[in-house]
């Protein structure tokens, strides 16, 4: 749904161009192959531990496709998708932003506090909160970007450390008398006024969070920015080859800082679905760890705007049905096994399909050239 | 894919057998088959009359076939001896026995290898001898040398040929791959020409001429590359004055990589820089392109000071760039051709309009480049990595020329490119020069330098030490100057040879 215009244009070019068709097919073949492999492996694991995999998969499918499950899955996927987009922006230029986790939590805390303390109308308050979250998270990521650009500090190390610092900072600020108040045994920022909550879409079987619109917009923006703008081209060029990008005139250091900032800005959105559609405050029960989920989903979705949407939904599906399997007497850990197996299979399958595709392409280039040569050879012989 | 069909060669023991052909003619594939890196679909290979099947380089080595690659495979921070025994420790250990064997081989074939020197301290020619010794050490009786002269100056080439004759005299067999016809004629006993994947002729040097060989390689009559009518004007386009750049070498010692580089290129002029690789040419190019920040000096483009302009600004101002290493600096290997067409020119038409990319226009223009510059590819959606080296280079040349540069910085524009494409690239450079383009040409191919340049400079240890008139100089004279032996005195003293300490830069 996000990618309608893109899909239409790809479809028309599919008919025209066999090379693009093949690339698209290869693109789809990898995740399909990976998922099949993963489920076979999972079935083996379950069979070995005396659990009936066929029944389990049946139960999952059954429960996961129920209407209220679907709503739950979509709502869960919103934040996952946003997190994946934030990670993918880094991935596209070979930056590994492991710090999305810390970035969104710091951003969401400050945004929740701003929204809860200032009693503007929702029309002002909601955009303000989103903006604050993006700026704060962007700043947090920007620290790592700046360190990498000026001091060559690996972003992997600095973002992990910034995660730890973010955890402490949140812990420090989330105290009564600082940014938070106490209710029961939960410390949280002042509740947002009702007018500052995001709208929901009632389906009759539960409410889909309106923040799904933010995810869709973020997906479109991601696709457009990276694929259709000069900035995106520069960013991808650095990702392909920083030496070639440098020679082509890209200021690699600026791009590093820029991409990290942008990744952080996107990370700022990760906390919004929960804050604006669910909790209405940032408390010590605010969900964490979604930054790491985003890494898995970006890998699974191949940094592709649509691919990541499917991956986020799959993740939601697994979590939803995993809870259910627990009721049915299966071990709860099987979901973790599934997620891990899927990510591993996907990464391996992508690499295999990529290599195979490159070899195929090279041999096809060779074959067409050989055919061309044979023709000119014949012509030459006729001429003699 | 049929890279080779109906290849028939017979290489007799104790001979130097040259294998020539354009790039993409199938030489490399043939070599890979002979060295066990690739398996033939049909046909047989016989060594000493016995049919063999080579599954891997190890098989080939066991049969006495060794290969010296075009790109040396040596560890810089190990000594010569350590490099030679690396991976062959089982033969003679790593101690005194190994050293004795190395010395023996070195003496027997006149290689003059010093076992205890670190590889990073020795020059290109010495490294090549280490590579040869490495192969001999493993018991090779047949040596395959892939374009061994590409990195050598004429004097070193002569020394290499002397080594090869030595090997031959000892009963060893050498297969020599090249596309430099003069060299082939000088050293080979027999010559096999490969074209379009098949052997088209087997000749001996006595019965052929360079021109005939070239025509056999290309399959048509060659255009004569020399056109001497001068298009040089007196309008300066690129002026470089007092350029200094210091760098840190492997030991952490700061030394001057470029010192007091001063030159001017006019409209319609090709300035060629000769020099053994590693004397500062790459750094000069990268400084002119804005990829390195000099410590001092001024660069002007058409009178405008661009010393502080970033690379992108310089490119937009009209500096085209054919980089020395196209894989590292010229292409995005995993990206399709049409995205590669944007590289370096993404801010310009037809690639973008304001901040937005115009992919459709870029694709159409890539198709035009593919057509006009004869890039052999099934389409513009294949990745750059799947093209052969020569076709990658043609794409780069086409891309740079399409933006009508005022100055073209061309580093080894025809390296690793077949004869046909080479002639084509030369023609394009000449044509653009005729229309007023200025060219800074760096090349290791002295014929190319002399044939294309209007003015020649020699670079040695980061300085422009000599200048020469390409109409009057021979490759041998130039080669001598490149080794630093003929500093400043080719046909007249180089003007840049006088640093003068005038403090024109800070």
From TrEMBL, chain A:
The chain crosses the membrane at residues 24-49, 69-91, 103-120, 126-147, 156-174, 208-226, 255-275, 295-318. The keyword NADP does not apply. It comes from the Bacteria. The keyword Cell membrane applies. Keywords: Cell membrane, Membrane, Sugar transport, Transmembrane, Transmembrane helix, Transport. Its main location: membrane. It is found in: Cell membrane. InterPro entries: ABC_transp_permease. GO terms for molecular function: transmembrane transporter activity. GO terms for cellular component: plasma membrane. Pfam families: BPD_transp_2. It is a multi-pass membrane protein. This is Simple sugar transport system permease protein. It comes from Streptomyces aidingensis.
TrEMBL record, chain B:
SMART domains: AAA. One of its GO terms (molecular function) is ATP hydrolysis activity. SUPFAM superfamilies: P-loop containing nucleoside triphosphate hydrolases. PANTHER family: CARBOHYDRATE TRANSPORT ATP-BINDING PROTEIN MG119-RELATED, GALACTOFURANOSE TRANSPORTER ATP-BINDING PROTEIN YTFR. Residues 2-221, 238-486 form the ABC transporter domain. The keyword ATP-binding applies. Keywords: ATP-binding, Nucleotide-binding, Repeat, Sugar transport, Transport. This is Simple sugar transport system ATP-binding protein. Transmembrane segments: none annotated. Residues 478-506 are annotated as: Disordered. The keyword Transport applies. Residues 479-489 have a biased composition (Low complexity).
